[in-house]
Amino acid sequence: MKPLTVKPIKKQSIPDTIIKELKALIDSGQIPQGGKLPAERELASLLNVSRPSLRVAIRALSMFGILENRQGDGTYLVNSEHPPIETLSIILSMKKGALLDIFEARESIENTCAGLAACRRDEEDLHNLQKALENMRANYKNPDKYIEHDLNFHKAVIAASKNLVLVDLMDKTYKLLVSTRTEGQKYPPELYREKNFQQHVEIYKSIESSDPEKATIAMAHHMSNIKKKYL
Q1: Cβ contacts of residue 88 below 8 Å, gap of 6+?
Q2: DSSP calls for 55-96
Q3: CA dist 149 to 54, 123, 142, 193, Å?
Q4: Comparing C-alpha atoms, which of 200, 19, 13, 48 is closest to residue 110?
């Protein structure tokens, strides 16, 4: 008898499995947009899982804007005109080694957004970018504040792209990367902030001058440096 050619079954955590089951309920329309989920005890019984495991899964989906917990009222599927990011992204965020995949998605989207921003930015966009740069400079020696305004700069670039799908995707992607951004606090200013700030200035200048090629290159250079720092 010839040996069987089979793929080994991958072990999954209970919260991962719960998330997939909830996704199936959402995709099938059994939980409609804006709809309320069954009470925790009932849902845990239906899924045949423990309530602590269910809470972990619901907390993950709530963190990324898919579910909303209303104090004293229950948990609801967020009613949004833009569908939530594929749940697989949330599952990936729980896995070791997924950081590179998530970052590569961010890198690709932000490079595209920078080019689009150079073509579509208006005076309000330039004002928001300038304000973020000013706040970064003012908080040069304050890691918490610097990182906060660094993120505001990137959000302003994405908003200037005027692409609502990319804006929504990056909002979810940033939530997946929250923990990595705080790692920057461990690095003293002299190691990276001066170079980091100048990279943001170059991105701004290329967007201000409406040069999509330079904007894309400037953002790609910046993303490359971030990748080296975090990964």
Answers
A1: none
A2: HHHHHHHHHTTSEEEETTTEEEE---SSPPPPHHHHHHHTST
A3: 35, 19, 11, 13
A4: 200
Q: Which residue has the tokens 């972990």?
A: 56
Task: List Cα–Cα distances, 53 to 15, 35, 171, 191, in angstroms.
Answer: 6, 22, 26, 41
Distance from C-alpha of 170 to C-alpha of 22, rounded to nearest angstrom: 23
CA–CA separation, 110 and 161 (whole Å): 10
In this predicted structure, which of 26-35, 47-56, 164-173, 182-191 has the lowest mean pLDDT?
182-191
Record the tokens describing residue 75, joined without a space: 């948990």
* Mean pLDDT of the residues in the chain: 81
Identify the CA nearest to 101 among candidates 115, 116, 86. 86
Cα angle 98, 101, 107; round to 5: 140
Q: For the segment 7-36, what is each residue's pLDDT rounded down to a tens digit?
A: 554 555 677 788 888 888 887 888 888 889
Whole-number Cα distances in Å, 81 to 78, 84, 128, 158, 175: 10, 9, 25, 19, 19
Report residue 119 as tokens. Answer: 């073509």
What are φ and ψ of residue 70, in 5° steps? -105, 115
Q: Taking every pair of C-alpha atoms in the chain, what is the biggest distance, in angstroms?
A: 74
d(CA 207, CA 211): 6
